[in-house]
Fold:
Amino acid sequence: MAKVELKKPIVEEISELLNDAASAVVVDYRGLTVAQDTDLRRQLREAGVTYKVYKNTMINFAIKDTQFEELSKHLEGPTAIAVSADDATAPARVLAKFAKDAEALELKGGVVDGVYYDETGIKQIASIPSRDELLSKLLGSIQSPIANFARVVKQIAEKKEEEGAA
Structure:
């Protein structure tokens, strides 16, 4: 079997992974301990992020002529890729948070919703709350005036009851 035939399924796997992805972030994981790597993979899995290590040439073939093609400039040295189909900011958020404690983890760059970001941009993306957090804040801000209005109406009703009883 030719080497190309062995590599083709790997390239197809990466392509399929990126096909429906909202974002992808590449990192240099060199220097992480086994315990740190295990913890990182657990955190990413809990956030719904796929995290894999592939050869740079395989990633290069898979991202050619896609929205992720800009990542090719970061494909040097050991590279892992974190991909999310649902929450566009999840890979950046989890990786940046983890990198604060594990200095060996180096963010290289990423593509979020079709836009390329370098390391600095990915760190800024990481500060954006998740969609669920933003929705809960929005609902809280909508609900707050209604709850306050209901309390005022209740107090007025209670005051009128007291006046009527006296």
